[in-house]
Give the backbone structure.
Amino acid sequence: MKDFTSQLSNPFSTGGGVIFETHVQASFVALMLTGGFAPCVSCLPIVKIKLQGKKDGYDTDDFILFTQSEDGKQKQKVLGQIKHSIGITSGNPVFRDVIRAAWNDFNDPRLFIKEKDVFALITGPLSATDINAVRPLLEWARHSENAEDFLKQVALPKFSSEDKDEKLQAFRAHLKTANGDKDVSDKELFSFLRHFHLLGYDLDIRAGVTLSLIHSLIGQYSPENAKSLWASLLGEVQSANKNAGTVTMAMLPEELRSPFQKKSERAGPSVSVAAAAPSPQRNWNLHPDASDLAIASLIGSWDEKSKADIAIVAKLSKKDFPTWLSRIREILQQPDSPVAIKNGVWTVPDRKNLWQAVGARIFDSHLDTFKECAVAVLGERDPKFDLLPEERFAASIHKKVLAHTEHLRKGITETLALLGSCSSALTYCSLDKAEGIAALAVREIFADADYVVWGSLNHLLPVIAEAAPGEFRGAVGQALAKSPSPFDTLFQQEGSGVTGTNYLTGLL
């Protein structure tokens, strides 16, 4: 079988930089959610991230990150440009465009506050020359008293190097072009370099250090769901990116925000926690409607306004939907209810605990029916692929949307993962039944899957992989062996501009 990782590196080498851009942007959203700090600026909370800054008058296009102290008195911005690969040379056109955009914003006081705001050029792996020459050059500028002191340091033969001087001339040449073909002064050059940062992110590979650190950061809040939350973040950023949107805490979906509130809640006032008596946990398996709760735990999430979602719930519960729902609504009234509802969307906030509590109410017949439902829901082909790539952002306007909601699809996918990893809770199911159902479902979903099936499941792929790793790897291998591969076709589906997107972030 062809090497999976090497195959998936192809989009970067063939111009698929949107994937890298999405990963980098999502890494900053992860920092915002976890209370982390942005590089290159003071340790202030991230409050807003604008994607595609040109619509707001910036020439810096890929993201504008805003930080602010809690009292609002301290503010800083990071103006970011993301290039998967770039050469810091006088002849590189990509670097020329980066410097031009930064120089234009640098000289616009409405957009950039000198001595506060910074520019960040974020790339993939840096060359040894850039690491050893460009980075020290920029740091020297930030630590020099003035332009004269800085240039003297660069010119010292035993202290500096020809590489550093060559990189300095590359900056100077591109700044001249950006300045209307007029030389910038030493003072202007020095000031610009003090505000410019070069960062290398190894987000182009799955085994990179940056991704590991992101997973670790997310894992401080949700150890079991770090990878799936990261995948959800990628999907959310991708959607915001294609609409040139803005990301704030308030604008993120509740299902993304809520996992990151748990740690702060645990870290509440110690006196109050110590004084409060622990609340006894209800044994939901002894509740009169425990069997209905077991069905809710199998589904995970659904929209009561969706006819397709309702049909799946009715098939699993083997009850008239209004009758079944009335029992769930009664449970909702309990102060410690394991189910929740917002805008007609039902969720099970703590799925693993409910799964453990009512797993004894699930039998082999439930799992057989669930497999049929999972294949039907996750095997659905997204009709947006009937549209041209540049039209897909308006799929809802064209009424090209999935019949089953994303809430149900996500819930069903998470159940597959539970079947594959937490089958011990299903005490009355046959031995290996749960794992077998998960494997069979994944096998059927991807049997002869074309690019539309893979693209339709993009943001759910990391969790599906957790459900049945062997079956998933086999499906990927079969897809790679085809000619043409569905992945090749999906890479060709990638759009451009603010309406562009890619459909394999879930595999990367």
Notes: The longest strand covers residues 75-83.
